[in-house]
Every structure is written in structure tokens, then in C-alpha cells.
Design a protein that fits this description.
The chain has 1 helix and 6 strands; from the N terminus they run E-E-E-E-E-E-H. With 85 residues, the protein is mainly beta. The protein has one domain. Strands 1, 2, 3, 4, 5 and 6 form a 6-stranded antiparallel β-sheet that branches. The longest helix has 9 residues.
Amino acid sequence: MVTDKIQPDDWIRLGNRDAVVCNVYENRPGFIEVVYLDRERAINEDAHWIDDHWEFVHQGSSGGYADKYDRLSRFVSILRAGRYH
């Protein structure tokens, strides 16, 4: 499974968004937590591997504000620095 190779700090593509992996859920194979930018806000949300691509677990909902969580500060910094910095 592709998630066997995914690690925190990795960049992935979710639809038309670049995202940084924050957490790989060991007890839920194929599920991860990511941060991504939405109108300059850092958002954290769960995603999962479906067929051959990543999708948000809860389509149509927005996740939490990642800047509010100390545990995500490292990932938000990576995100704000940019994928190709």
C-alpha cells in the first residue's frame, strides 16, 4: 500500500492542493492527517487513499485551523515555506 511509504513531513497531492503529512494512523491503514493552505489559512484534515489517489475523508467539510494546534506547528512551518522553496 502506498501509505507504507508515507511519513510525516512528506508532501502529497490532494486534488489540486499540495499538502504536508502530519500523521500516519497506524491503527487505520490508508489514513493520514495533513495540513494544507486554504486562502492563506493552514487547515488540518484527515485523508485516505482511494484506488490510486488521496481524498479528504469528509468531502465538502473543512478541517480545523492548524495554526491553533501546537502539535502541528512544525508541519505548518514546512507548509508555509513551500514545497519547492
